[in-house]
Write a structure and sequence with these properties.
single chain; alpha/beta; TIM Barrel; 2 domains; 6-stranded parallel beta sheet; 4-stranded mixed beta sheet; 16 helices; 10 strands; about 45% helix
Amino acid sequence: MREPAMPNVTDALVPEVESPERALARLALDIARILDAALNGRELGFEEGVRLARATGEEVRALVAVADQVRRETVGDIVTYVVNRNINFTNICFVGCSFCAFSRTPKERDAYALTLEQVAEKAAEAWQRGATEVCVQGGLPPEMDGFFYRDILRAIKARVPEIHIHAFSPMEIVYGVERTGMPLRDYLLMLKENGLGTLPGTAAEILDDAVRWRISRQKLTVAQWIEVITTAHELGIRSTSTMMYGHVETPEHWVRHLLLLRDIQKRTGGFTEFVPLGFVPWNTALYKSGKARPGPTPEEHLKVHALARLLLRGWIENIQVSWVKLGRALSQHCLQAGANDYGGTLMEENISRLAGATAGQYLAPEEFHARIRELGRIPAERTTTYQIRRVFA
């Protein structure tokens, strides 16, 4: 089954010159009061978040306008990006997530596993092309040596000691712990001592065990995800945070997920950003079996980005758009709905592409600049942890 043409995001959903206050004047009193509270900096709760998540029509326009205003007040008009390379070192995986079209069994013809030398070479090439970060993740091969992740870090740092390594999802960390028998804290310390800079907060999907059971029965539990993330933060290893939406979950799940991330951030302060990840369905078993929606609608993309800005206000400043999943137009629209970061150049990308995404695998810095300037915003290159390297005024 192939991807249909992406529906247009109508002007009615995207704020232009209208002020949030003017947009609120046309709304029912209940949602107007919630959005006014958000504008004035009050922390929103679960029921308020659900009301916003279920917004329709003019309510969505107002939600987006308010989120954009809060973004402007929080981080200004700079839109950041990072020059990085994505390295998926193997597609061999035993987990069998139904939403994944990337993984292969060891005997499949297109299964692959990069050597340590090949991973290090990709990192060196990235550094030569201006990258400051490599993002390293892969499948979970059966019988993997639990010290393989340590060895990847050593190989990269031996070739490119200056590059930042953003690597290994909480699922990979749990697998490494299982394969070595080491305590989680000791395992993370070992990785940090060998060059791990930050963790991707992926493998989160929806942080609800009932949903996780429906889409991936061998994935780590919510409690395990939280334990890995909070332990990493305690050790000074910061991480991103993510949510995959548009499959079997409900708006209530979005809100619970975001509030859980907010609670973690209040305790640890370790999240650098939140990245909404729309489900790319076309080549996945979850969608082909009829068990999932065909990904998020354009309106849902806008709502999730806007909701994240409002619910995470004061705790997670940076909201990223996934250009590889959204494409050009939708990623720009989501930058008008509360987001302030365009993600990374990637240089290569396999997971979304194999699931059916068509936005490409590489976005040059000059293309980021052009897309950001089209919005009347200011492009800036950042590091993994959001230090600004260069502003292109």
